[in-house]
């Protein structure tokens, strides 16, 4: 590896300015990856109206999600092996190519295929952002920038549906994809010009773990398909779902065996020897479970039961997202000033349990003010956990494994979201159907139309059916969030076992400052401008 420039050789004036410019480019790339699905969700009815293929509608989202999840760990390893900057720029280019092709799609099959290409690039965007931040900013200082990352997430969730609706109405659905091109071009230019990281030079050409990558892809694909199709496309006990579960288990077992033999494993198993890294992976999975479940079912409850407009669905999440952003910023500042962080996963875990339990108590009489308070409590819990999990995970590995650590943490959160949406969704739908049947008799759920009606469709129902449906949605929401609260308890328990390992700082490492078995290096040294 090329010699790093020491922290002392970077002037105090140049370093902060360079870091800020790079971070701005990284945040744009992160926004691209997160904003895409939010925008496309709003445009989907118009897309189906023009291209047809309603029966394949779900694959427009599934293809993107699958490609993103499957490619995430591979992008992380490529960055570790061949250099972070090159792999990140490549992922941006692939994402932009997928966006341009998606905008030019002439039928649903083309759109699904091009969305998969887009997803491949998106996998590299997220892990690239996290790994480069891990390279540039020492964990001790990283807390100062957590609010920025949480703000980008909130902006995507709130602004996505609004931007998607506006673009679709005034420019056409194809611009939902084309809008990525100018943003991506800006990020590409800024990263190319300002980001200077040490290049991987010398030594033998690393051996690519093709077998491990293939087995991991099969395992992730099987898992995501089980959680996507189970209870919707196919019954949980169907041959298709059982078959996918078997394929997933076998491929995971084969992957674990292959990684013990590979010279350069795509996901080195030694990183899981760190107790903190393993715990952060578990907590990250549970955060994804709670967050994505909440994002899906909170707007549904407010639209169906509280009569809110679907147009402003992103704004309905404002109490949760604002509290998440503010708390994340405060936790980051405290972490930077004190170097202490163990208390935050504990507090965050407790608030997540309380928030989900309170949300489970909502019924047809719950006001928007009370549901907003409950959401704010959940958001505060997520704020204590979202960035801390990534920070501690990165602090628990050697710098050479920064990419795979970032990609693994991202992957576990993504898989947690898939499981959360699937299990909470299955429970929700089952409870809605059962309650409708109890109130109106067999076939009542069919009479209502489906388990997910918007406010406009709900208004057209007969009063007796509408009232029964609102009670059914409240019952379904109760069951879904009660499950989420139960799962969140595991995260609260896991947080107590986190070891307070000193965060690596910008200065020279002190004796005993090794990160849970990793070498305490100065990540800030990587920036050479």
Helix residue percentage: over 70%
Question: How many strands in all?
Answer: 0
Chain-averaged pLDDT = 78
The parts where pLDDT drops under 50 for at least 5 residues are 1-14, 447-451, 506-529
Separation of the first and last Cα atoms:
17 Å
Oligomer description: single chain
Gyration radius, in Å: 23 Å
Count of discrete domains:
3
Keywords: Cell membrane, Membrane, Transmembrane, Transmembrane helix, Transport
Main location: membrane
Domain Major facilitator superfamily (MFS) profile: 22-503
Region (Disordered): 508-529
Overview of the structural elements:
The chain has 529 residues and is an all-alpha fold. It folds into three domains: 14-196, Growth Hormone, Chain: A; 208-266; 270-503, MFS general substrate transporter like domains (Growth Hormone, Chain: A, Up-down Bundle). The chain has helices at 14-51, 57-82, 84-103, 108-136, 139-142, 146-170, 175-178, 180-194, 210-229, 239-261, 275-304, 318-338, 343-360, 368-395, 402-440, 444-448, 455-459, 463-495. α2 runs antiparallel to α3 (84-103). GO terms for molecular function: transmembrane transporter activity. It is a multi-pass membrane protein. Residues 22-503 form the Major facilitator superfamily (MFS) profile domain. Keywords: Cell membrane, Membrane, Transmembrane, Transmembrane helix, Transport.
